[in-house]
Each structure stands twice: as C-alpha cells, then as structure tokens.
Amino acid sequence: MNDVPANLPRTAGDLRAAGHLPRSVKQELHDNLLAKLRAGEDAWPGIVGFSRTVLPQLERALLAGHDVVLLGERGQGKTRLLRTLAGLLDEWTPVIEGAELAEHPLDPITPESRRRAAELGDALPVTWRHRDERYTEKLATPDTSVGDLIGDVDPVKVAEGRSLGDPETIHFGLVPRAHRGIVAINELPDLAERIQVALLNVMEERDIQVRGYTLRLPLDVLLVSTANPEDYTNRGRIITPLKDRFGAEIRTHYPLDVESEIAVVRQEAHLVAEVGEPLLEVLARFVRNLRESPVIDQRSGVSARFAVAAAETVGAAALRRSALTGEEPAVARPVDLDAVPAVLRGKLEFEPGEEGRETEHLVHLLRRAVAETARSRFAGLDLLPLADAVESGHLVSTGERVPGKDVLAALPELPVLHDVAARAGVGPDEPAGRIAAAVELALESLFLSRKLAKDSDDGTTVYGR
Fold first, then answer.
1. What total number of domains does the chain contain?
2. pTM of the model
C-alpha cells in the first residue's frame, strides 16, 4: 500500500488555500506526458519495440485528448501498454473522503457530495488517492451487463426506505467508479452490441443514464480499449457509432527485429536456469519463422507469450538435466531446444490440412532458426577443424543425462573451440556448461550444413562421421 504523505491538505479549505485547481484526467495526462517528453524521460517503461511506430501515435492521441482503441493480434503487448498509462497520472490526487465516487473536493458531481460540500464548506474532509488506484481494467465477456459497466438500482437502498425515483438508490458500475481515472476495456468486440450502446453517452456526452433516471453525471474518464482485427468479423464487432466516438485507432504489431524479440523474452520470462544469448536468439528467430510460415494461421497470430514460454521451457529442461547429472550451475544447451515443439504445439493455430504434421513443421522451423543463429554468430569462422576432429573418431555425445564437461572431454584441445566460445559471449574460464552450450551450437550448425552426421536414440544424441 502507498502511504499518503502527511503534508498534503486534509480539507477543502486547505486545498483551496494551497492554490489547487481541478484538472480533467485528459488534461492531466496531456501535461504530464508533455513534461516527460520535454525532459527526455521514458514515458513508457517496459515497452519494447514500439518506440518508432506505436508510441508516437499514442502520444499524439493523448496530447489531443482522444479516447483510444488499440487494434492488433494476440500477444502484441496491448494490455501492457495500456497499463503504463497510469504512470502519466499525478502521483496523488485529492478526493472527497467517504464519497462513493472519486470526486474532486472542489468539483463534486453526485447529489450527496454536493449536499455535503454545501453543508461543510471549507471543512469538507479530503483524502488522497494514488495513481495506481485510478486505473480500472475490465475484460469484456459476453455476460457483461449494463449494470456492471454503468450501474443499476440497488434494492438494498430501496429497502432502507428511499423511493425508486431517488437518484441515490443507484449502485454505480465500473465506469462511474473510475471517475477522474482511466477505464481500460480488453477485447471490446466481445461485449454484446446492446452493452456497447451503453458506452455511447460516456464517450460523447460524458454522462450516464440508469433505467430512465434523470441523473446526469458529468464523468471525467479516459476510455481505452483493445481489440483483435478478427474480432470485427468472428466473435463480434465494435458497433459503428462506438468506433466513431474513439478519437484514435492505433495498430500494434509484433517486434520488428530479432533484438526487440530477444528484449521482450529477457524482460518477461521467469527463467529457472541460465539461458544464454545464443539460445534466446534461436527462440526469437524461431518465433519470427512461425509468423512467416504458411502452415500457421496468421490471422490468429503467434503471440509474444509463445517466445516467453519457449524460453521458460528451455530453462526448465536445463534445470531438469542439471538435477539428473549433478552439474552446477544449470545452463541451457541446444539439446534442451528439443523440448519446445512438443510442449508448445498447442499454443499455435495451424492451417486446415496440416493435421498430424504439426510437430514436423515446428522441428523444421526450429532447425532453421538454429542454422540462422549459427550463421550469424560464427560468420567468417572456419569450423572445419572441429568437423575434422569429430570425423577422425572424437564422437561427441549429448543429451539430458550428459553434463557439459563430458561434451568438452570428448574433443581434443582445438583453437577453434576458444573462438566458438568467444563468439557466443563465453570466456575460457567460465563453467563447462556455458562453453559446452557454444560448442553444441557449432556442432549442430555442422550437422545442419551436412558436414557431420547426428544420431539420436533414447534421449542421447551422438555427433559423428
């Protein structure tokens, strides 16, 4: 919990004496974003790969005071991007203490708060709300009701003696309770069309109407949402009047280069073992190959979560191997990549007609990613001495029960092995597992370029003539 600083005003009179003036949430975002841009600060911590594409468009939309819909395939970071918006709000904002909505002490909007402000005047008690509490998120589901979003009559309040015509019998929904904050609706097209209609007044007139009540609340909210392009025609659609009320529709995308893909994995993955840069590069290239493959349903997309889960799976395979062999520290090697196709096949949607060949396609694309990474890492390096050594009888065995030191012990002392390790970012004095990971990548590269043979059986792989 965030502790409210003790020096902040505690009554409406103190607030007014301090020169505090109410600002709309959109003006607040405008001012704070502009200040960060002028100061050269990062307004979007944790967002990777959008700096030249999505973020400039979003910044223009916020500076213009527009509500925003982010449109893109699954796993492109839309929700993560929306959640960073809270960081552009003031750290603390004053609200009327005890009020049902987050009303400004100098600008109450509900009948009860206006009555209290008139009775108490400058003595109206003030409390402070942290910006994290001013971001509200709702996952749109088909069973979402108007009462959930806007509000409904509260039977408990009616039972207490209030008449049905009393506006104070209303139980406010999610949107009014986000007054002076940000409302994010994920997967907006999943809302039934009649529910989307209830948002029209919120977006244009900035008020709500509940069951014919004449209560009109001048709500102050920024409405942002996400949608997948296919949702317009498959599960549902954003109704035309609601689309028209969004000031900006911004297309998101997957990382545009390998470096950004690796950065996303490194940032998001919770790795239980060490996964080196070369293997992260393999997984990044693998995901990019999947996004270009004609056998994958590209309308569904290949989520960034796939690459994250792949890295975590490789780390788990390395940890298991470490437990079986007693090798420390647990370091992932190319042999651990074999776990990826079988474990993560279900996260992908394949085109019709590819039934039964899913694993075959994934193995092929993964090998291609290994070959591309090896070419990038070992460009200009002559690996033939390594191939000659293996062909002359120094067979190399690897697998889930083979520690890294055994992989290295199978080979003679070769200068090229030091070069291979250096290209993989590994020093000569580092643990055997890290050096073995680089050597295995070189061996797999020689196999894929048909300079070595490889035989796999019962969890053990042998590189040889």
1. 2
2. 0.88
